[in-house]
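Why do we care about 3D structure at all? Because function follows from shape, and shape follows, mostly, from sequence. That is the central idea of this module. The next example makes it concrete: a single protein chain, its amino acid sequence, and then its structure expressed as tokens.
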Amino acid sequence: MTATNIEAFKQLIERYESITIAECIKAFATTKDGGKAAQRITGYGSSDSCMICINTFCYECVWYEQTGKACFDGKNMETYTAIRNSETAEELLKAFRARAAYMRETLELRSEQINVRTLDGNWEGGYD
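And the structure:
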């Protein structure tokens, strides 16, 4: 199956890369919970508010397509929990940047796999 949220995934990468320390400080002004602060900025942590979850089931997501796991599971968990476990605005900003880098790697892997499939006509990835 092909992921249905590729554009939203790309937009979230860009959002994570453009978040400012001022946004993180403001989000932490009323909470010391990294997950709640992140949710205020990006919708993080809830399928009802996350940019890449809205209108997409987990099994239709880029995360699931590429890793076989949800955004918060398996090898995806490290950067996900770094956001949730942030205790300061600086930690949150660093966690957002790390998540963006990991998401970009995941997207690049997807592009490489599509190119291989297109070039040799044989696709063994099983995602279609």
